[in-house]
Design brief:
Structural class of chain A: alpha/beta
Low-confidence stretches of chain A: none
Distance between the termini of chain A: 20 Å
InterPro entries (chains A, B): SpoVAD (IPR010894), SpoVAD_sf (IPR038369), Thiolase-like (IPR016039)
GO molecular function (chains A, B): acyltransferase activity
Oligomer: homodimer
CATH topology of the largest domain in chain A: Peroxisomal Thiolase, Chain A, domain 1
CATH architecture of the largest domain in chain A: 3-Layer(aba) Sandwich
Strand content of chain A: 15-25%
Number of strands of chain A: 15
Mean pLDDT of chain A: 96
Protein name (chains A, B): Stage V sporulation protein AD
Largest interface: A-B, 66 and 66 residues
Largest sheet of chain A: 7 strands, mixed
Number of domains of chain A: 2
């Protein structure tokens, strides 16, 4: 077999897996935002009828997976693999969502890059010949993430100008070895980049250099210009991080006209009091599995480079004075193989 | 390409990846145990010269990876992929260990099944044609895990009879697409099994049903008898969990003469005050990358089924009254392809 590796970080699939189903579930605030029409379910009660925020997150993830499986017309037991992750300690959002489902499971942790990481690995499993069906699922919840990473909600702390708002939402994608697309055609695996930012309320600034590194590697590995894609979209850099990435490319002599960020797309930044925009692994998960993939199916875009961005910090590392290691994984999705 | 899938949960590699290097680093208590001779480095100071237990764990993981790369005679930058995980919130043990290393990285979370999960995915990447080299690294630290999952060390809580002792150690394996073995020949991906156990001090009892399910699936998928293997070894079931697995198989009419558990191997259970034995993802990581792989190289065993066992709980899920979802991934390692 010839290698599928292109350059240092990218693989080109021999038989690009097809996206057979995708779905997303969100909370009230996301449903009040500009992408409301692209969500499969908008729940008005952020508890999702559960007794804790963590259980709400699990419920949401289960609903997204079920909906994506329904759209793919497949039973959970058909899946050869499920890759899933979230932001909670020991990834309990996912562990409890997957419990009771009859699917071989690999838990992953890439912080807010979870959607891209899980999708990358699911696609690699199928192209590698290890099965016919694989699913990827990811979630975050504003209320569980705030008490996890920052302060309890009841504390009512003032948010800083660079703060972002964790998306309450879950997204799931079902991949098939054969199908009508859209197809996952390439994956660029990120390296950890840490430029020394220590402010846990400036995720966009911390993650931007990782996004820049991965996008640049992707373009170089495949010898592509940014204009090859109809849209290059990062996961949750927010307003500030997005500007930083654009600035990095500008310095390289490239002005990206087709660049956007799920964190700036998911909320109305002027009117929803979210400061720099959305964040959390639910952010890129719901934008990908709603707005972006729906848009591809509707013919709006044919080639998207989806770049999940993640900050690999924890409250403990912040308290111990550490800076924030970040990562970005890129997944190329195209309507034609 | 014909599928590599056998039955519902197992894959047989077309071109089994070769273990080119393996190493493990442990703390003092592990060095006082019966496997002392198999460890590459025994550190007498469990801080590893760092200012916190979490940083000590990162340091340990970095040392294990460096040693495994040295044995494989490869630079970090040669690796196409690194898969790594630990037990800490947001997997900071791994994130900070990998920071600054020039390797495309996928973070994973399978609790104490991390070594088997990372090894499975690394092997699949190579057999799938996505690269030439991949590494897997995993760690746990008694001091960071105790304050993470149970109580601060200073509290001096009484340990229950079913408690296990988290291994302070890290293990790393370097895989190559071509080489002289031992080879990773098969992987069986686990499903989540939760039989309702809620006692966070009875990990062995909680995980045993998952281990039984995966081993059984492996044998059925490949139509093998347990006696095919020289050794079937679980990750960290401890004395109680090991007995439960043996009991399950006994009910099926199979008496496993070749079954053992890394948690019972790593300490002297009579004299080291570890109650039911070792646990933590460092447990199976150091036993695999020391005792087991050294033993294979020395001709003691030719066929080992390595079954990493993980309990996907968190302190939050325990406080919220949840039972413990568990998982087990099995990796077959053989000296001949």
């Amino acid at each position: 077999m010839t290698t599928k590796k292109k350059g240092k970080q990218t693989v080109a699939f021999a038989n690009p897996p097809s996206i057979a189903g995708h779905a997303c579930v969100v909370g009230k605030k996301e449903g009040d935002g500009p992408l409301a029409g692209s969500f499969d379910l908008i729940e008005q009660d952020d508890t999702f009828g559960e007794a804790s925020w963590e259980k709400a997150e699990s419920a949401m993830q289960k609903m997204a997976l079920t909906a994506a499986l329904d759209k793919a017309k497949q039973a959970a037991s058909t899946m050869d693999y499920l890759f899933g992750g979230d932001l909670l300690n020991q990834c309990i959002g996912t562990g409890f969502a997957v419990r009771g489902q009859d699917i071989p499971f690999y838990g992953i942790y890439g912080a807010c890059s979870n959607m891209a990481e899980s999708l990358s690995l699911a696609a690699m499993m199928l192209d590698g010949g290890f099965g016919e069906w694989a699913a990827a699922v990811t979630s975050s919840h504003f209320c569980s993430a705030e008490r996890q990473y920052r302060t309890p909600l009841e504390y009512g702390g003032q948010r800083t100008p660079t703060a972002q708002w964790t998306v309450t939402g879950a997204g799931a994608t079902v991949l098939a070895r054969e199908g009508d697309g859209p197809y996952v055609t390439h994956v660029t695996t990120g390296k950890i980049v840490d430029k020394g930012i220590k402010d846990a309320n400036n995720m966009g600034g911390a993650m931007a250099p990782a996004a820049y590194q991965t996008i640049k590697a992707h373009l170089e590995d495949l010898n592509r210009k940014p204009s090859y894609y109809d849209l290059i979209v990062t996961g949750d850099l927010g307003r500030l991080g997005k500007e930083i990435v654009l600035d990095f490319f500008h310095r390289d002599g490239m002005d990206l006209a087709n660049f956007d960020d799920c964190g700036t797309l998911v909320y109305d930044l002027e009117n929803q009091d979210v400061h720099c925009g959305g964040s959390g692994c639910g952010c890129s998960a719901v934008v990908l599995n709603g707005y972006l993939l729906n848009g591809m199916r509707a013919g709006r875009w044919n080639k998207i480079l989806f770049c999940g961005t993640g900050a690999l910090l924890s409250p403990t590392s912040t308290q111990q004075g550490e800076s924030i290691p970040c990562i970005c994984h890129a997944v190329a999705v195209e309507t034609k193989k």
